[in-house]
Write a structure and sequence with these properties.
This protein has about 150 residues and is α+β, with helices and mostly antiparallel strands. It has five helices and three strands; from the N terminus they run ββαβαααα. The chain has two domains: about 60 residues; about 55 residues, no CATH class. About 5% of the residues are buried.
Length: about 150
C-alpha cells in the first residue's frame, strides 16, 4: 500500500524542495528527494520526510465534501487524553574515585553478589544492585567460574 509523504528540504535558509510523494517506503521518498534536488547525498541539507496518515486525509476530504470548514483544533476544543510515557530507566555511571555507598566487606560481600548473580544471570542487574562495575562482575564470573 502506498503512503503519502510530505517532504521539505532546505539549505542555508533557502527551500530547495517542498512537495508530496506517494510511495511504499520512506526510503523511496528520500530517493525521490535526491533526484528532485539533483544530489547523490543529502549531506549539508536539512530535510524532513513526514508520513501523512491516510485516515486523516479521508476525514479532511469528507469534511470538505460535506461543506464543513476545516480548521486546526483550538485550545478550547476537548482533546483525547494522551497516554503518559513510561519513565526511563535511571542511568548509573561508576566513578573510580567515588566512594562506594556500602562498605566493602571482602568475601562476605562477594558471596552475596555471587548469590544474586546466580539467581538472575545478569552482570548488568548485579552491577546496578551492588554499585559495582559491570566489567568487575564479568571478570569475577570468568575468573571464579560462577
Amino acid at each position: 500500500m502506498d503512503k503519502l509523504y510530505y517532504i521539505v528540504c532546505e539549505e542555508k535558509g533557502a527551500t530547495l524542495f517542498e512537495g508530496k510523494f506517494q510511495g511504499r517506503t520512506r526510503g523511496a521518498a528520500i530517493k525521490f528527494l535526491k533526484a528532485q534536488i539533483g544530489r547523490q547525498s543529502l549531506a549539508g541539507v536539512v530535510f524532513t520526510v513526514t508520513e501523512i496518515p491516510v485516515p486523516l486525509i479521508r476525514e479532511i476530504v469528507e469534511a470538505i465534501m460535506r461543506g464543513e470548514p476545516v480548521a486546526a483544533p483550538t485550545a478550547a476544543s476537548p482533546a483525547a487524553p494522551m497516554p503518559q510515557p513510561t519513565p526511563e530507566a535511571k542511568v548509573v555511571r561508576f566513578d573510580a574515585f567515588e566512594k562506594p555507598e556500602t562498605p566493602a566487606n571482602g568475601d562476605v560481600r562477594w558471596a552475596e553478589i555471587r548469590r544474586f548473580y546466580r539467581e538472575c544471570r545478569s552482570p548488568k542487574k548485579t552491577a546496578e544492585r551492588f554499585c559495582v562495575s559491570v566489567n568487575t562482575i564479568k571478570a569475577r564470573v570468568r575468573r571464579e567460574g560462577w
